[in-house]
Task: inverse folding
């Protein structure tokens, strides 16, 4: 059975599922204020200044915040209209997890929403993560999964996204160890946010499996910003899932930190499918920015059912195989 914000559902009722999104998010505490901020840094995101954040997504602080209930509802309705049935919302508390709002959204849209638990990367951590023991952190995740989040009876259905930095910090290791313990114990899957430009997947897998987690319950996220086929293959050979979760993010940022384009992602996706790895790949948008919502000119949660699907099938991935990435694969990861 799968735990959603409205209770348990059968895994066969997940249907078309985006494996990693954020419906509400507040990443503003992770954005460094520039030393000499441009005059638009504290403006609201609009169509007129959208170009600033297409180069660097954090050039306007407001881009890091999604918190409007009515807008979120409309975005979920677009997803549903194009065939989407379930969204895994991987937002940890420190960046805006809101179980009551998610429950209301699920009731009002009919989209299944699955919530995560655990902690994001070091920069976002609440102070208590520093002093908490591994067993206290595990208790917290266990409670979210078995009893309910905060003082609600809304339970988490997945662990994560657990955050890690370019060098995995001691506090992040504690959280990973706790996630491994609770993952092994409850059988829940775990999403791990990896630094976009380093190759920490192996260290993460070691920590989680050392605690008894099976590789097939682990997903290494964000492998599609800097495309490194050999790294991704080596991860897949460990038996874990890897996630192409940046569809819709084609930012330049800088010469050394550019994001791959969606079409380049599709080419790597096809190569890996042709090599036989198709059953261990998840595909989603990891929406975390205002400009990714349709309201602000973005592709929305339905991107994976619209342009990405079109590009995939135009470039040699048959429709059935593509659809299995956002149905069967997520189901197998979660069950
Ligand atoms: Zn995420």
Result:
């Amino acid at each position: 059975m799968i735990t959603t914000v409205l209770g348990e559902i059968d895994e066969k009722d997940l249907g078309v599922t985006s494996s990693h999104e954020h419906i509400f998010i507040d990443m503003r505490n992770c954005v460094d204020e520039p030393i000499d901020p441009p005059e638009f840094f504290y403006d609201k995101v609009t169509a007129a200044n959208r170009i600033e954040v297409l180069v660097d997504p954090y050039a306007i602080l407001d881009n890091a915040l999604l918190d409007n209930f009515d807008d979120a509802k409309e975005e979920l309705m677009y997803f549903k209209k194009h065939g989407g049935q379930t969204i895994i919302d991987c937002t940890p508390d420190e960046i805006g997890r809101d179980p009551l709002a998610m429950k209301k959204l699920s009731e009002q849209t009919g989209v299944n929403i699955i919530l995560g638990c655990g902690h994001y990367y070091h920069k976002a951590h609440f102070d208590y993560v520093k002093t908490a023991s591994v067993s206290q952190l595990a208790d917290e995740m266990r409670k979210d999964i078995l009893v309910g989040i905060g003082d609600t009876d809304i339970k988490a259905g997945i662990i994560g996204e657990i955050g890690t930095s370019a060098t995995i910090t001691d506090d992040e290791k504690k959280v990973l160890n706790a996630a491994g313990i609770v993952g092994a114990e409850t059988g829940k899957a775990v999403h791990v946010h990896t630094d976009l430009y380093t190759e920490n997947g192996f260290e993460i897998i070691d920590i989680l499996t050392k605690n008894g987690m099976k590789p097939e319950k682990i997903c290494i996220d964000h492998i599609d910003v800097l495309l490194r086929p050999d790294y991704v293959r080596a991860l897949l050979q460990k038996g874990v899932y890897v996630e192409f979760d940046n569809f819709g993010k084609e930012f330049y940022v800088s010469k050394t930190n550019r994001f791959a384009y969606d079409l380049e992602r599709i080419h790597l996706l096809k190569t890996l499918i042709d090599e036989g790895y198709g059953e261990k790949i998840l595909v989603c948008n990891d929406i975390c920015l205002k400009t990714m919502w349709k309201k602000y000119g973005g592709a929305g949660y339905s991107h994976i059912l619209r342009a990405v699907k079109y590009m995939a099938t135009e470039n040699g991935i048959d429709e059935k195989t593509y659809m299995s990435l956002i149905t069967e694969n997520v189901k197998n990861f979660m069950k």
